[in-house]
């Protein structure tokens, strides 16, 4: 029998990956510091909070554990990691590798629109730093680095940075980075961008390494 005309042009409903949705929500909550270091994450509590079954929650926790954003302890459960200074150094080591690869890509194939977007982010960043709006400045800081990596056009670099950026936020929220101690923070980013825009890859790498080593040193002192 032919379909009714009124239903002929109806688009099918896209299937929803509940486990992925739960994993993404939990990633956001981890980045926001909603869970304390060492806090246990249980299937029943997450399932009840999100009004979903325990199966998708179990799969979401497995995915986040595989990504290193949660840790699973045998016979105990799943926990928010307690980051050591060695963890911080390792996280920034990975960030440096990802961002260096991204900088190489934008130096090799420069796009004025990319540099314009990055300079605008830095202008907004500078304004929030000057006003002492640290949370907003942190968001723009991460936006700068995310846009830098996105400009590479590499799906794998973008995916890798998405995970390490959550770990970075966990580091900064756990170990406390002191913005007032660094009135020149915007200059660190400007040095990276200026060198990349000029096509000077070694100078851009040096500026990136200075940025990372200064943050690591601050976090080590706070620890």
Q: Please, could you describe this protein's structure?
A:
The protein is mostly helical and 223 residues long. The chain contains 9 helices and 3 strands; from the N terminus they run αβααββαααααα. The chain has a 3-stranded antiparallel β-sheet with strand order 1-3-2. A hairpin with a 3-residue loop joins β2 and β3. The longest helix has 24 residues.
Keyword list:
223 residues; mainly alpha; 3-stranded antiparallel sheet; 9 helices; 68% helix; globular
Low-confidence segments? none
The rough form would be described as: globular
Q: What structural class do helix, strand and pairing data support? A: mainly alpha
Instruction: Tell me the span between the first and last alpha carbons.
Output: 72 Å
Quaternary organisation: single chain
Q: How many whole angstroms does the radius of gyration measure?
A: 21 Å
Task: Enumerate the strands of the largest sheet in spatial order, edge to edge or round the barrel.
Answer: 1-3-2
Largest sheet: 3 strands, antiparallel
Beta-strand segment tally: 3
Please give the share of residues in helix: 55-70%
Number of H- or I-type helical stretches: 9
SSE succession? HEHHEEHHHHHH
Which percent range describes the beta-strand content?
under 5%
Arithmetic mean of pLDDT: 90
Blueprint (SSEs and pairs):
Blueprint: H1 18-31, E1 40-41, H2 43-50, H3 54-66, E2 71-73, E3 77-79, H4 85-108, H5 112-131, H6 134-150, H7 155-175, H8 185-197, H9 201-222
Antiparallel strand pairs: 1-3, 2-3
Helix pairs in contact: 1-3, 1-7, 2-3, 4-6, 4-7, 4-9, 5-6, 5-8, 6-7, 8-9
